[in-house]
Amino acid sequence: MILKVNNLKKRYGKVKAVDGISFSVKRGEIFGVLGPNGAGKTTTLECIEGLRSYDDGEIEIFGEKMTTNNDFFKKKMGIQLQESSLPQRMKVWEALDFFSSFYNKNVDWKDLLVRLHIDDKRNNYFSNLSGGEKQRVFVALAMINDPEILFLDEITTGLDPQARRHMWKTMKEIKNMGKTIVMSTHYMEEAEYLCDRVIIVDRGKVIAGGAPRKLINNLGIKNRIVVESKEEVDPGIFKDLKSVCDISLKDGKIEIVGTGTDVLMDIARVITDRQIKVDLQYKTANLEDVYLSLTGYTKEDAI
Question: H helices of the chain, where?
């Protein structure tokens, strides 16, 4: 394990921002710390990064216990903060060149810009970059010292869907470079797509952890199929299917809840046998379902 966190605690007065969080990160994986705003994600990362003191617990990185202001750890870490900025009239290449001067060991920032697909923006002022381009610059700055482990805090917050997808591709490419990534996010879809393993944090506590698909399967969260047709379809034709758990009629559409992938095949067979023309929407269980199931929140609460 490249990182181990054991019973980490941090208080702000009577508020337990981090309340006994424990997890470990394997070398070469993308590890996600998930949860809503205010769950304790950023505080946890900042304690690990040495940017914030903590009240109790142990942090071990590269087999060594973490201490603040330790040059050994700083050389091996790359950090992208939740909120960052650069002077508006600073050019991209100037920022990379300036930050590289801070380290005895650094990578060729020109190559880094190419790898992160912002080489064509090297002469642009920071103020003229899009949100996604600014985030790529901050990732480049976090990687300038060629770190072994990269911490990315809410890297895609505020980005449009296209920029978010581009950032996902960048993170996959960084992983393929042999880097370990620890990221925080409140986007469950993002974590499900990117992360090898995750922990879900709520009110400063870890409420679940593991590979996203394993968490989904272990909870036995059911899949949903929506049946829509111009013809009148009797919902009762599906009631005897063993894979079906619940059937309801909403806005003229039949919504069926079932377990496993067999439910879709069973429904398709019934429809084919009766030669009914329908539109089917198959909604698989996802990490958001896991989170909502564990916390008891509704989707409206989680927004």
Answer: 41-49, 71-76, 92-100, 109-115, 131-142, 161-176, 188-194, 212-218, 262-274, 287-295, 299-302
What CATH number is attached to the domain comprising 109?
A: 3.40.50.300
> In the chain, how many domains are there?
2
| pLDDT tens-digit readout, 230-287 | 888 888 898 888 888 888 888 888 988 887 667 888 898 998 998 888 888 887 788 8
Is residue 290 in a domain? no
**Nearest residue to 48 via CA among 29, 28, 23, 30:** 23
Tokens 């309340």, residue?
19
**Reported pTM:** 0.83
Domain check: are 193 and 268 in the same one?
Answer: no
According to DSSP, the β-strands at 180-185 and 30-34 are parallel
Phi-psi region of 145 (alpha: psi -120 to 50; beta: other; left: phi over 0): alpha
Distance CA 67, CA 47 (A): 10
* Rounded CA separation 139/8 (Å): 26
Range of the domain at 243: 222-284
Structure tokens at 9: 């605690």
Domain boundary among 211, 246, 262: 211
Nearest CA-CA partner of 16 in 5, 25, 4, 8: 8
Q: Which residues contact 264 (CB under 8 A, 6 or more apart)?
A: 223, 225, 258, 280, 282
